[in-house]
Amino acid sequence: MFKTTLWNKLSTRQKEYLALALITLLAAFLRFYQLDVIPVGLSTDEAEDGYVARRILRGEELPIFIAGSFGEEPMHTYLVALSFALWGISPWAIRFFPALIGIATIPVVYWLSRELLLQQGASSSLVPMLSAFFISTSYWHIIYSRAGLEVITLTFFSSMLLLFLWRGIRTDRRWTFAVSGLILGASLYAYRGARFLPFLLLVFFGGWLTASRDFRRRHLVNLALLVGVAVAVYFPLGVYAIAHPEVYFDRELHVSIFNPAWEQGSPLQSFASSLVKTVGMFNVRGDPEFDRNPGRRPALDPISSLVFFLGLGVVLWHSRRSRWLFMVVWLVMMALPVAFTAEGLPHFHRGIGAVPPLCLLCAVGAAWVKHRLETGIPWRGASVASWVVLSLILASSTGLNSRDYFLPWQERLHEGQIIGSSLMEAAEVMNATDIMDGVWILPASSLRPRNFPYYEVSFLYDGVEPQYTLNMNEETAPAELSQITQGHRRAAVINWKEYVLEQAYLSLNSDPKALLDFLFRKYGTHLRTEPHVTFDLMVYEIPSSIEFSITQSLKPLSADFGGQLKLEGAAFGGSSLHPTSTEEEVRDRKLPSGKDGWVALQWRALQYLKSDYKVAVYLLDAKGRVAGQVDKLLLSNELRPTSFWEPAQLEMDYYTLPSAPGTPPGECTIEVAVYDA
Predict the structure, then answer these.
(1) Going by DSSP bridges, is the β-strand pair 590-591/565-573 parallel, antiparallel, or unpaired?
(2) 318 HSE (CA, 13 A, CB side)
(3) How many CA atoms lie within 13 A of 98 on its CB side?
(4) Which of 85, 109, 112, 539 is the most exposed place for a label (fewest CB within 10 A)?
């Protein structure tokens, strides 16, 4: 009785606020539950933000734009730095503010829905609450609220911007337009998807200004104020964008439908193909990547899809009303970042701005279902039945979304499938290992972007020895290796093992041609190997100052191997009696007993090759006896086996030749054989 009386004493507005508080608590649970372990592991994007945030905390940089890894707006990284200062350095701290921003978006969407649907009829009074509920339990929104990325900020900033803008249009209060401009300018520091917000405003409100004299008379100055404030806030970043367009627009240039590298025909054909996939991501087929779509499903569950289509129909029916029409324009404009790209489609990252209008349309559809049941069935229990149906819709959608997000991650957790596990293990090993007077080197495939280090290791590594990611391009790696090892007597290498040699071109984390091992053994000594599951820790003694090179010169040759390959150049040599050798000593063909020799060979394809070939290199002592042998799959600098080579393609390969124990010292020769792999 007391509870009933207390509930009855509450006003309608108080009941709404209580319901909103409960919905927000539900959102908080869905975003913070097991946030320290789900998502499982540490993504590269999270690690990059963590690494830069640590540099910000140490005062090493204060970026206005983060140039690495295709570029990123800085706001989220500064928030991560603040989170580290509050909670300490951990993956959970990286995810704290995205989860908090995801929760804060719930009441904002509620207030925006109220503003958009003000005085739109009795059924619309339920829509704001349903909008808040649908976004609080949205599968798509949960993914990015927990992902530790800047992506989720777009749903918050876009909703805040539109809340103040529509309120200003209704009330004619100029300060709301100034706040809208402030939010718009700030959003451009948060996530690149916000770059479509000015186009949304231009298309809808610019069109409204053109079509309506009354709207132009009332709000032209107000909208000009919005633009002016936004430009002023964005100005510092805009100056950077003008000065460094190749950095600021790097991601767009890479994934755009206008990039011919994607080979999808004309830009118009690419756009048509992308548009179909973009439309389908809502209800048919979602993002193909597990970390962006663990449930392997479209953005909406079947029940939400049904009420979405109903809501879309209702809104289109009332599209003569500007606020109803805006919902559709908002959805379309914020889905365009997906449609204008050609890579990884459909891509939930790029379409995140469509989540608020998507949930609003679902709310309109669910409210319409309740209203039709309540008014269209002439019986006393219609009201109760309508609430039961609505409750089933909400409960079923919540259950499906929670299941599709949490269960796949929990399965991966139980199976030990941890994102970035090998890199996290490498950082742990590096932190526990002292390399006196040493340097850590993490080899990266020649196909890996040169400005793309192992951020997971950089973020988690706390050792005193410097660590570097070295791109194993044969044309640049030796010179870069000379620079990073200058003044060091030891080198520790994380030698990755997670690749298939014949398909090494698919791996970005590898040194399958063993270039590092070749260079370090050529000029230094291998001290020890410590095996781990996904990599080997290899330690070398190296000269403190040396110009590493595969070879300084090649002896011209013309050895034809069956009309398939030609050996056009060769170089080989030995080493000194000491742990390290000079350039003059390694060029000497005399090999001390028990030391390694080295060989460099230059190959040319004579035609298209149907087979993958291996090369056997034999070390012969002064009496012509085999003192050592190495067999190796022949790969190009881009890690392609010979069946991928073009006619006349010229490639280099190199070999370390261990001599058999007891081999007498003296001058050695080599022999080479080629055979099918």
Answers:
(1) unpaired
(2) 19
(3) 28
(4) 85
